[in-house]
């Protein structure tokens, strides 16, 4: 095992090649789920995996599994992976690092001529970010039985295009059932997306768990009218009501201790015209907290705050929950393996808690799961400026290689 070498430059160059797909003028990446750039990135990943000797399968939700065979081909695999999709103004490392670290593990084992007993799977999970279809960690959610397949396939984007239709359009409506096979263990490498590791000069975080998150889509209904002739009194302005709700939701965050994070990041207005009083406004809510009870309390407070404003302003209100992810604690043995691997490799490490959500959170409900964080510059993520160092990515991949091969014996 000591002869296996992560190739830092190969790993970095693979990131840079992927970053060209959906590259934004600001130096980031826009690769929304099930769009043409997503298809292109999938194609490149699949071609690299085939070159590395992996067998590739695609399930009915477009999740991709690239398998490096084990000497016991039918044994449950040790799985790694993450996502290829990004935010609209996303960075070059969120998601893709976990996928390419898995590929680098396979390439390094191939170079060293090492076989493992169990197969190794690299998973690409469909629609992790949940930007376009608003749910988040969709592919891993269905795989782990937490989200219904038919409901996921029926989700639509703002222009009415469905997951089912878009999967078929990009050619990733695969033949395999979603999930239903045992996973021996799951490890996901990811940039931290926060400032802790960089600030402390530490290279690897052994992730203990992640906070829970609930997402909602709120639709506010009023009545359209002429901007010039409808007096200010008596208007039923849906956007004005939504704006008041957004302010009230922000205040809800400060009434709980420790503070949750509550974000309204996406808004739609109809008819979206400068000289029509808006008749409909819809927005998303993303709320997160480490404790399940507080998440439920925030949910109730948010609904009450929106309902009071709708009532006072004579507006209709519909709140749909689009995702629910409970706070998770990762598997103690997996966390210990990450710590031990970092220690054995002489890589500075510490335990860390994740503020972001990950596919690993879903996998943790069906398999022993752990995560490996590496620093990112300034802790900046979901931002075109997101950056990471080649040597830190390589260190994370080296830890991944060690834990995967350990669990594969
Ligand atoms: C994933 O990017 C998340 O929203 O935490
Ligand atoms: Mn991510
Ligand atoms: Mn993300």
Short descriptors:
409 residues; alpha+beta; Aminopeptidase; Alpha-Beta Plaits; 2 domains; nine-stranded mixed β-sheet; five-stranded antiparallel β-sheet; 12 helices; 35% helix; globular; binds glyoxylic acid; binds manganese (II) ion
Order of helical and strand elements: HHEEEHEHHHEHEEEHEEEEHEEHEHEH
**Which class do the helix and strand fractions yield?**
alpha+beta
- What is the number of E strands? 16
CATH top-level class of the largest domain: Alpha Beta
The rough form would be described as: globular
In the CATH hierarchy, the architecture of the largest domain is 3-Layer(aba) Sandwich
Cα radius of gyration in angstroms = 22 Å
Q: Looking at CATH, which topology of the largest domain would you report? A: Aminopeptidase
Q: Would you identify the regions where 5 or more consecutive residues have pLDDT less than 50?
A: none
Bound molecules: glyoxylic acid, manganese (II) ion
Tell me roughly what share of residues is in helical segments. Answer: 25-40%
Number of domains: 2
Question: Which homologous superfamily in CATH is the superfamily of the largest domain?
Answer: Zn peptidases
Mean pLDDT: 97
Largest sheet: 9 strands, mixed
The proportion of strand residues reads 15-25%
* DSSP helical segment count: 12
> Termini, distance in Å?
12 Å
């Amino acid at each position: 095992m000591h002869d296996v070498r992560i190739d830092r430059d190969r790993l970095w160059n693979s990131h840079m090649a992927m970053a060209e797909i959906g590259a934004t003028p600001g130096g980031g990446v826009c690769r929304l789920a099930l769009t043409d750039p997503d298809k292109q990135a999938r194609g490149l990943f699949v071609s690299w995996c085939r070159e590395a000797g992996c067998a590739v399968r695609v399930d009915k939700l477009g999740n991709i599994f690239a398998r490096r065979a084990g000497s016991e081909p039918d044994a449950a695999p040790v799985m790694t992976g993450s996502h290829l999709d990004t935010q609209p103004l996303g960075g070059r490392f969120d998601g893709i690092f976990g996928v390419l670290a898995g590929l680098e593990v396979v390439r390094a084992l191939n170079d060293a001529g090492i076989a493992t007993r169990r197969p190794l799977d690299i998973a690409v999970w469909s629609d992790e970010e949940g930007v376009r279809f608003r749910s988040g960690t969709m592919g891993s959610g269905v795989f782990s039985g937490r989200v219904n397949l038919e409901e996921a396939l029926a989700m639509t984007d703002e222009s009415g295009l469905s997951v089912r239709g878009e999967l078929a359009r990009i050619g990733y409506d695969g033949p395999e059932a979603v999930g239903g096979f045992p996973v021996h263990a799951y490890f996901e490498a990811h940039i931290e997306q926060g400032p802790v590791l960089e600030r402390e000069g530490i290279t690897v975080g052994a992730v203990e768990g992640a906070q829970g998150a609930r997402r909602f889509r709120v639709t506010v209904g009023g009545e359209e009218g002429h901007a010039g002739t409808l007096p200010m009194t008596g208007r039923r302005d849906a956007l004005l009501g939504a704006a008041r709700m957004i302010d009230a939701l922000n205040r809800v965050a400060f009434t709980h201790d420790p503070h949750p994070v509550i974000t309204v990041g996406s808004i739609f207005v109809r008819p979206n015209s400068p000289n029509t009083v808006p008749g409909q406004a819809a927005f998303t809510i993303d709320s997160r907290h480490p404790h399940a009870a507080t998440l439920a309390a925030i949910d109730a407070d948010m609904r009450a705050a929106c309902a009071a404003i709708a009532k006072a302003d004579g507006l209709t209100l519909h709140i749909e929950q689009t995702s629910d992810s409970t706070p998770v604690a990762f598997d103690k043995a997996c966390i210990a393996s990450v710590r031990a691997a970092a220690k054995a490799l002489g890589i500075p490490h510490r335990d860390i808690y994740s503020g972001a959500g990950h596919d690993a959170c879903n996998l943790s409900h069906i398999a022993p799961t752990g995560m490996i964080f590496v620093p990112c510059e300034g802790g900046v993520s979901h931002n075109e400026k997101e950056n990471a160092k080649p040597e830190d990515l390589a260190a994370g991949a080296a830890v991944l290689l060690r834990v995967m091969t350990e669990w594969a014996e």
